[in-house]
Amino acid sequence: MFNDPHEYASGVTVDGLADDRALLTQTSRAEQVAAVLRARIAKGFFRPGDRLPEQEIVETLGVSRNTLREAFRLLGHENLVVQELNRGTFVRVPTPADVAHLYRVRRAIECSVIAPLTTPPASIGRIAAAVEDGRRALDAQDGLALGTANIDFHEALVALAGDPRLDALMRGLLAELRLVFHVMDNPRWFHEPYLPRNEKIVAMLEAGDGPSAAALLDNYLVDAERQLLEAYSRERRP
Amino acid sequence: MFNDPHEYASGVTVDGLADDRALLTQTSRAEQVAAVLRARIAKGFFRPGDRLPEQEIVETLGVSRNTLREAFRLLGHENLVVQELNRGTFVRVPTPADVAHLYRVRRAIECSVIAPLTTPPASIGRIAAAVEDGRRALDAQDGLALGTANIDFHEALVALAGDPRLDALMRGLLAELRLVFHVMDNPRWFHEPYLPRNEKIVAMLEAGDGPSAAALLDNYLVDAERQLLEAYSRERRP
DNA sequence: GCATATTTGTCCGTATGTATA
DNA sequence: CTATACATACGGACAAATATG
């Protein structure tokens, strides 16, 4: 098929196109398995502290143990699971120190993205849309959707940098933060008080005032961290 | 010629690799193997673009393919190697976009650590020591030691946060940044102009003026990134 | 504390597919 | 086009550590 000369339309150049084939379908089994497990963990099907039994997962997914173990290594490096030698692989149970770390990095990253802005960013639509989603979720008393909208908001903020690797870093932080909420008994309305602040940040960005938006966001995240740590140490199951 | 296994690994040396087998004794085999390869990459024995031949490494280190593949997954997740499906594992060749990303995160993290400081930090000794090491290296015309001292300086800065996970994050960034210098022809004296700035930052921290130190560091890193990107696109081998 | 069953850690053999000379 | 070397993935094996009764 790729070698059939009739496949080529005259006048069209495909020079170097083959180099990009790697971008199409090329993903290893281990990555695919990791993606499946990552999704299960994110949705809370696998809860923090749960052991992930090799044999059972191997039989369910129809992959070999070696492949699954490669996937475990990936997730371990993402801090979504911990691998205890000769004991197995467990969904990570974040410590308060982990929470502090996550918020520390979030503040540094998110604020550094918006602080330099002096004009309204072109792609502010996605940010505003996330806030509106949050408002609708709040009106509909949908705590889960409110949490999702909040995550979208912060991912959209970081996306302003136009740095795909920064997006990936942020996704990892938020994925880990999700574990914190899965540990808590009642995380539903945690994000409620922060929706008005999100709206104010959008307004400041639309006014081209990045520094003020960053300052507000910084305070916001400090407050959120404190509130979360209080609730976390109170609610989390040992 | 066709049967010589070394023919495949043209440019890759595994001489002395067996010496590092002593490191294989503490945690899981995969982590140990990853540590060995990480060290080899950091020191430039494996250069950016080099393929890491599975069979040869397996034979040299005396571990199974499965274990080595787990180690490769770890290194891939650290962005030190790229795994091209059915082609193999290669030491990563950073792009200019990667350099920009690394400096973006460095600026955000490092500045966020020292900006809040209002009193001289207790553990400033390690920072000052790194600067002094740099001064000695410069006097001794030792470019390699100068680079090492510079890395120590920045790691010590981040260590002020007292966050082990932040230290690990920073180590990863600097490990990847090392790849950039391994690609360049003459990175030896790149850090020279920044030693005086390091000294000034130490002075500001000793004066308890975190915000000024952070501002200086931010400018510093912007300059370094620009200079590095210029030199990188000029010097890097294709 | 002991014996047993289970699970993990690691290695090996092998079949299949892919890329390259 | 063929041949070859290599990577991918699977399955089986066994020792070691852990969990269980």
Structural class of chain A: mainly alpha
Tally of discrete structural domains of chain A = 2
- Report the strand count of chain A: 2
Whole-number mean pLDDT of chain A: 87
How would the global form of chain A be characterised?
globular
CATH topology of the largest domain in chain A: the name is Four Helix Bundle (Hemerythrin (Met), subunit A)
Which oligomerization state do the chains in this entry correspond to?
A: homodimer
Q: Pair with the most extensive interface? A: A-B, 30 and 29 residues
N-to-C span of chain A: 59 Å
**What is the helix content of chain A?**
55-70%
Give the biggest sheet of chain A.
2 strands, antiparallel
Tell me the strand order in the biggest sheet of chain A: 1-2
| Contiguous uncertain segments of 5+ residues of chain A | 1-25
Supply database-style keywords.
238 residues, Four Helix Bundle (Hemerythrin (Met), subunit A), Arc Repressor Mutant, subunit A, DNA-binding, 2 domains, homodimer
